[in-house]
Structures are given as C-alpha cells and as structure tokens.
Fold this sequence. Notes:
The protein is of the alpha+beta class. Helices cover about 30% and strands about 25% of the residues. The strands form five sheets. Strands 9-12-11-10-13 form a five-stranded antiparallel β-sheet, with no helix packed on it. A hairpin with a 7-residue loop joins strand 10 (about 185-190) and strand 11. The protein is elongated, with a radius of gyration of 40 Å. Mean pLDDT is about 85; it is low at about 215-225 and about 365-373.
Amino acid sequence: VQVTINPEVSGEIIALAVKEGQLVKAGDLLLKLKPDNYIAGRNSSEANYKSAQANVHLAEANLQKSEVEFQRHKKLFEANLVSDSDFLSAKTALEVQKATHETSIHGAAQAKAALARAEDDLSKTTINSPLDGTITKLRSQLGERVVGTAMMAGTEIMTIANLNAIEARVDIGEIDIPLLVIGQVAHLEIDAFRDRKFKGHVTDIANASKNAGTGSSSSASAATGSTEATKFEVKILLTDKDIFRPGMSVTAEIETRSRSNVITIPIQSVTTRLPKKPKLDPKKLEPETDPALTKQKAKTEIKPDEVVFLIEELKAKITKVKTGISDNSYIEVTEGLSVGQEVVSGGYKMISRDLEDGKKVQINQLSEGHSKP
C-alpha cells in the first residue's frame, strides 16, 4: 500500500523534515511550504468577514428603525392624518431595509466561507504523513517551488509505502475473471526471489476492464489490425512478510477450485481420439437420399473421447477417461484410472498424433507412474 504526496496548494518548500528511506508514522511532519501569501489571504478574509458582520448589525438597526417608522405612519394613515404617498413611502422604505438586511446576511455567509477557505489553504502549507510507512521516493528538495492540485495534477513530492502490507496488482484475462472471488488463495513468484514462492489472497477484483475507456478491444485495435486482450486488474495482499519493494515484477497463480485425495496425472498425458465406429449390417442400412444431411449428422454425432495411454507390458493401451479440474501442470482424472497405474507422458506431438493403441513404448524413467492419490 503506497500513497503519493502531492501538495494541495502551491508554494516554495521552506522545510523538508524527511529523507528517502526514512520511517514515518501517521501525523509526522513531512514538509512546510512558505505561508506568507496564505497568511495575508487569511487576514484579508478575516477583515472582510468582520466588515460583513458589521453590515449585518447596521442593517438590523436600520430595519428596526424602518419598522417603527412604518407602524407610526400606519396609525396616522388609519386616522386620515397622513397622505397616501407618505404611507406608501414608509412601507417601501421598510421593504428596502428588509432586502438590505437579507443581503447583508448572505454577504456575511459568503465572507465566512471565504475565511474558512483561506484558513484551510493556510493549513495545507504544512503537510503531514497520512500513514505509517517508509519514504520510498523523494522527488523534491528544499527551496523548490511546487504546484498544488487545485487545477492540475500537482507536483509529486514523495511516495510513502507501508511495507508491512504489500499488495500485488496483476492483470487477469476476461475468461478467467468469472472464476475469481474475494479471499481466494494466490501463489506468487517474484522475479527478485526466483527460488521462492509466496502466498497471498485476493482482496479486490476490478469491475471494469483496463481498456474499458476505449470501447471494445476489437474496435480499439481496428486501426492497427491487432487484437488487444481484455484484462481486469486484480489486487492480491501478500501474507508472507519479506524484504519486498514497490514496483517489483510478480506472476500469480490463483486457486479458483481445489480438491483433495484425487488422482492427478500430467496434463500432457491426456489427449483425444474419435471413438471407433460400430460395425453395422449393410442389409439393415437405409439409403441416405440427401448427402448434406449425412454430413451434418456425422458432425453432430461424432465427438472425440478424452483418453490416456496406459503402459502394460511395454505397450500403450488406450483408455477412456473423464477429467476434472486442472492447473498448468496436472489434471484430475475422475473416471478411468486407479492408483498405481502407469500412464504415458511425453511431448504433445508424440501423445496427440504419433502414439496408437498397442504401440511399443520405451520407459526412460520407471516409477510408479504419474497417478497421484
């Protein structure tokens, strides 16, 4: 977990309290920006607010005076002692004072908000650490003028990372995304530690693909003629503690399903073969009048079987099997094999094309086979 420190206001760095590699705690001082302009702005806003408050008091006094004057003219008007024009003038003066009083209240509210903004800007000249962590990158130096984030991205002053909670971010293809849920166990290989594997668990799965903003992958790559794969970002929190560094390259394998006490064999040992056609009595066959129907019937009815080749008396014996879940190396066999049987394992071309039932095989390394309980 890491954060980039960007100033919210612009200014010159007059104090830099940390250095690269230093440990900090949440709330520790990181740096200060020159506050002179923001102090002046705060003082000006404070004076404007006080002036606005005085205007409110003055408007209240004038309103009270106009109210008394209007009530006096009203009584005289009802006694026919003042003219219509004098009464209307007193009434109009009262309405004007009411509007002036309301305007002064709004003006005071605006001045108060401006003072709050000025005080907030002044407070932002002091930047403290938002989390416990380590200064992994320090990009600015004392005396440098930095730009705030008010209208743009702002200057990246430093990066703080919590090395006690390392998070890996990996891209997963859209086909595999439906298999993922929060909490699944992940096994990670980090390039810097090639001889070791680390564990983690899925903490977040992106709701949108990384190229969602450019439309579909096919339309986005139409101009170049290439197909851009749709990827989703998945976050994995490492449970192992080690000397990791932000930015290290990682490859992850996520356990989507798991089973125990099952028979597994090398995934390349499983191939497919078309089932043997049953022998039919030619006298019982009905002539097919439409060749297109015959071709379509063959396509829909003939499906290849999953098979393996057992080793019996140094010969390959084809055996039909049913398979279950798999990883990159092994596949589960749910039917067709028993513990202790030996299966042929080799290259793709040899298993898928060259090997036939009854063909002699040569065992380079004799063992109990690749079947695993």
